[in-house]
User: Which sequence fits this backbone?
């Protein structure tokens, strides 16, 4: 797949506390993994306007969903409908978000988040003795097969979000473009957050911003726990992004939510 030599540069934030930094082309705003971190409409509208004022494009990131969040998602999409412009997008991390996005924002491009990538994750893969064929398997995700990528074509989805795997990445099939998230790669996530206090119909008072690391002899690469998701840090980007079908880099200055 032919992609631009210079990838688009995007910044991912789940809150904005001041002026946006220079050096980016796009703002991702929202959450990928925690349903309770779905942004409030006013915050998302302000983020979209801040990006547009700088000439950036805007991507709304929506998380893996919980049933009580669905009405909030529809309210959020409706609030942003008049704000979106050319080049803006919605990222879905749950197939349940596709219908309301297509209903309320029918002309907006949809991209598949990392939670739906099906990549093979975790630092222990590096300890395996693999043949070239086995290594290629561990460098792929759900959308590398011909039938799977054809399904995305039928759904009019042309971009997938990818983690920067320690074992490397296989080239995406023709017709798909990739966005590579760095430096934090998702390892595992759960709807059952260890910090959330039940019952709560909406919102969450958990202090998931208090990050801690997990490490033992079997996992020399530390795992970083944030809320309901664990990550690893990988600062080394692939050498030839165009050959992999990657034309966008998404920078997370903080651990994702």
Assistant:
């Amino acid at each position: 797949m032919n992609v631009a030599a210079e990838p688009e540069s995007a910044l991912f934030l789940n809150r904005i506390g001041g002026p946006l930094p220079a050096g980016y082309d796009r703002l991702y705003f929202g959450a990928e993994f925690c349903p309770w971190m779905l942004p409030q409409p006013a915050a998302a509208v302000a983020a979209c306007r801040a990006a547009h004022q700088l000439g950036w494009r805007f991507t709304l990131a929506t998380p893996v969903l919980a049933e009580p969040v669905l009405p909030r998602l529809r309210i959020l999409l409706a609030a942003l409908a008049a704000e979106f412009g050319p080049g803006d997008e919605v990222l879905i991390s749950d197939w349940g978000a596709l219908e309301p996005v297509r209903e309320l924002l029918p002309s907006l491009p949809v991209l598949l988040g990392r939670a739906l990538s099906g990549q093979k994750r975790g630092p222990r893969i590096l300890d395996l003795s693999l043949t070239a064929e086995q290594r290629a398997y561990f460098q792929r995700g759900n959308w590398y097969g011909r039938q799977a990528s054809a399904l995305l074509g039928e759904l009019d989805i042309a971009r997938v979000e990818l983690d920067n795997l320690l074992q490397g990445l296989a080239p995406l099939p023709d017709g798909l473009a990739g966005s590579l998230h760095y430096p934090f790669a998702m390892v595992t996530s759960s709807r059952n957050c260890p910090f959330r206090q039940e019952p709560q119909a909406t919102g969450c008072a958990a202090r998931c911003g208090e990050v801690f690391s997990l490490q033992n002899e079997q996992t020399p690469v530390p795992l970083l726990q944030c809320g309901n998701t664990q990550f690893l840090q990988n600062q080394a980007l692939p050498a030839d992004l165009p050959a992999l079908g990657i034309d966008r880099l998404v920078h997370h200055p903080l651990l994702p939510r």
Notes: The chain has a mean pLDDT of 91. The radius of gyration is 18 Å. The longest strand covers residues 219-226. Residues 64 and 99 are 14 Å apart (CA to CA).
